[in-house]
Amino acid sequence: MTLKLIDYITGKEIPDVGAEGNRQLFEKFLVEERGFSKNDIKVDFPITVTIKGEPYHSKIDIVVFCKDKPLMAVRCIAGSLGSFEREILAAARLFYHGQIPFSVSTDGKDALVRDVVSGKPVGEGLEAVPGINAGLKIVEDHSYPGFPDKKRDKEMIIFRSYDIERLHEECGNSVMQFKK
Description:
The protein is an alpha+beta fold. The chain has a single domain, classed as tt1808, chain A (Alpha-Beta Complex). 34% of the residues lie in helices and 29% in strands. Strand 4 and strand 5 form a beta hairpin. The protein is globular and about 45 Å long. The two termini are 26 Å apart.
């Protein structure tokens, strides 16, 4: 029997599997410590990338918006923060019509924040995650530059490669066993 919990943002009952508990911690942090409204936070945000003409559908754990513009894409994990940092950076470069300001990988207690356009680290720890006031200024000043077309295919492959690994991890070995 799978344990259930109530999602902090949506209020819906969800299975307590994988990094879900960590996501709940981070959702609460965004609202209670960083000042975002629940309406600013979208969970399981859909993303589709096309690889060799085939669509690959997935989701981004959390996308935080300010003034209806995305501020940060978040990957919640149960292991090493750096392990999937590249996946969320790729997602943040691809899901919107231009590159959004930040990617975040978090376990709910710690975070790694990157500038999406440069790919460079912004900071480490929850204190590096921007709050609503900083976010409003950032989205006002950010130009949302497009990701270079010549690099887009490679970035989509990077995202899918990490994302498939995450799905295997969250589903246990059942996916791998099914393929045999």
